[in-house]
Amino acid sequence: MTVLRVGAACLNQTPLDWSGNQRRIREAIAEARAQGVSLLCLPELCITGYGCEDAFHAPGVQETALAVLRDLLPDTQGMVVSFGLPLVHRNAIFNAACLVADGRILGFVAKKHLAGDGLHYEPRWFKPWPTGVRSTLTVDGAAYPLGDLAFDLGGVKLGFEICEDAWVAKRPGAELAQHGVDLILNPSASHFAFGKAEIRRRFVLEGSRAFSVGYLYANLVGCEAGRVIYDGGALIASAGQLLAQGPRFSFRDVQVTTAWLDLEAPRLTQRRSASFRPALGAEAEAYFVADDFCFPACAALPLPEAPPVAAWEQSPRLKDEELARAVSLGLFDYMRKSRSRGFVLSLSGGADSAACAVLVHLMALFGLAELGQAGLVAKLPHLPQLAALPAEAEAFTSALLTCVYQATRHSGAVTREAAQAVAHAVGARFHHFDVEALVEGYQALVASALGRPLDWATDDAALQNIQARVRAPGVWMLANLAGALLLSTSNRSEAAVGYATMDGDTAGGLCPIGGLDKASLRTWLARLETDGLEGVPPFPALGLVNRQAPTAELRPAERHQTDEADLMPYEVLDAIERAAIRDKKMPLAAYQVVCAQFQAHAPLARWSAAQLGAWVTRFFRLWSQNQWKRERYAPSFHLDDENLDPKTWCRFPILSGGFERELSELQAALESTIERPQAPA
């Protein structure tokens, strides 16, 4: 019987943080060794960090990565470890995994399928390795095999699927199975998106079953480079059975997940399978890099245990739980890696800013729960004053979050009360600024220059925007004085139609909820008010926020301004956005989609076809006019695969034809089938 103790590590790395990345890799190897692991899989590009962007082109990056690899070789004594790093070969850069045994480099496997969609741009930096090709790489005068190959370590055979390799239809695992490998290692940098963890579990389990192998999946964790959040979640499976799974959204820099693996079980499955067709001949024999490394012998396989599953992972409201944990971890990593001394937030009393305040509080709550006060403070060495605080989330939130309610003459008592209640509930420091004098000063200045008074009938947009803009300098000043990070509060729905004031409510260095649509955000806040989260009590103070109709409060009160009156119902806006931007439908097709959604079902049949057509027209006009705003928004976290961030997901020209032809086709269709709708208000 061949029984191995194997491990998969999740690491919180940072691009080009050579000493930090090396330290965390070393810690993972030491932790694995302490648990008796003899084979350890580390994440993709763990030496450099995954998000190095165009720095991958710098020769010094490859040179330093190899130098770090050399430094780490002695740490692998008595073990087999896979490292991820970029390699230059024949003037091309490859995304590679290096297998090291007992301090010796055995060879390099290069990634075959590059992630080039969504937020991934790997083909910009790397070349895909062709199937069936092997070459030789010279490092420090020694030649090592490189390419499409596998390894035979004293009779234990293993190969690689590197991240995207496992997501494609023609997985390398099928060829590895034909060569009779016992184990497949998958070093990954797989970003978080809602519901994506289940997809990963499926391909790991199905790969281990279909290929009759043991399967080790390692991932990054945390906010590595600024926008992308990795959720970790290491997986170990064998022949279709999940043996171990690691935690997701951990605040720890290193998490090693281990399991006992009986290699005879998948080997027996291959022998029994009528469909198994082994690769034979000299070419098949040359597929393996052979080494005489001997894994430690184990007499018997310990009794299997069911992999532990966090209670929140089993919640029927998994998306709510993932949102809380992903963004709170993202905020923590962004704060510590930028060495910011906390956050400043313009708290309006509305849903968006309230969500940001709660998420900062959840950051403190989850961090303390997992790491304890000493562990949390140790990860924030630039904030030593935290060590003197009570070990309570409210105390940490007070130290890390300053909220400011900024009133003009159009601000109401309801929003002021809501803002103060939310700040008090999470423990944040709270200030009240009256900025009306600043607004009046700018209005008088401009009116004098123009030689006429400003009036709501003719100057509506300018009068609204100046109120939002005068709020920015004060909160920026607070952030500068504290060395803190100013949070902006735009959501994805507002970004789609440009419903934000540039240099006003968009001011900030980070936008935590920029990847979330307004309807989902409001649903999340409503559930937090009444139900809380797993292990987190409800936030009754959110009731003051949730009972309001969203409003910018920039027009006089008698005008009864609301966001949805300015735009359209958020549920309709989000449906049009999904049809137009996610599904790439032109105006007429998008109109047909929303008509089917909101007119075919009785509970949703609240609007006429003419009204839906007018809203579709409004959306496309606002979308094409406001790309320049989306280009200037503060960085936001990627939360699902419907993102509008032009830097990582959704590119669109700043100047375009504005869908004029397509909107004319929609208008013609509307006129031919229904009474011509009135122009939108």
Number of strands: 21
Q: What's the pLDDT, averaged over the residues? A: 93
Helix content: 25-40%
Portion of residues in beta strands equals: 15-25%
Structural class: alpha/beta
Distance between the termini: 76 Å
User: How many DSSP helices?
Assistant: 23
**Assembly state of the chains shown:** single chain
Radius of gyration: 28 Å
Keywords:
681 residues, disordered C terminus, 23 helices, alpha/beta
How would you characterize this protein structure?
The protein is of the alpha/beta class and 681 residues long. Helices cover 39% and strands 17% of the residues. It is built from 23 helices and 21 strands. The protein has an eight-stranded mixed beta sheet with strand order 6-7-5-4-3-2-1-16. Strand 12 and strand 13 form a beta hairpin. It starts with a strand and ends in an 8-residue tail after the last helix. Mean pLDDT is 93; it is low at 676-681.
Secondary structure elements and their pairing?
Blueprint: E1 3-11, H1 18-34, E2 39-41, H2 59-72, E3 80-89, E4 92-101, E5 104-110, H3 122-125, E6 134-139, E7 142-147, E8 150-153, E9 156-160, H4 172-178, E10 183-187, H5 196-210, E11 214-218, E12 221-223, E13 229-231, E14 235-238, E15 241-245, E16 254-262, H6 264-272, H7 282-285, E17 288-291, H8 318-337, E18 343-346, H9 351-378, H10 393-400, E19 401-407, H11 413-426, E20 429-434, H12 436-450, H13 460-469, H14 471-482, E21 485-487, H15 492-497, H16 518-530, H17 543-546, H18 563-566, H19 570-582, H20 587-599, H21 609-625, H22 627-632, H23 660-673
Parallel strand pairs: 1-2, 2-3, 5-7, 8-17, 9-10, 10-11, 18-19, 18-21, 19-20
Antiparallel strand pairs: 1-16, 3-4, 4-5, 6-7, 8-9, 11-14, 12-13, 14-15
Helix pairs in contact: 1-2, 8-9, 9-10, 9-11, 19-20, 19-21, 20-21, 21-23
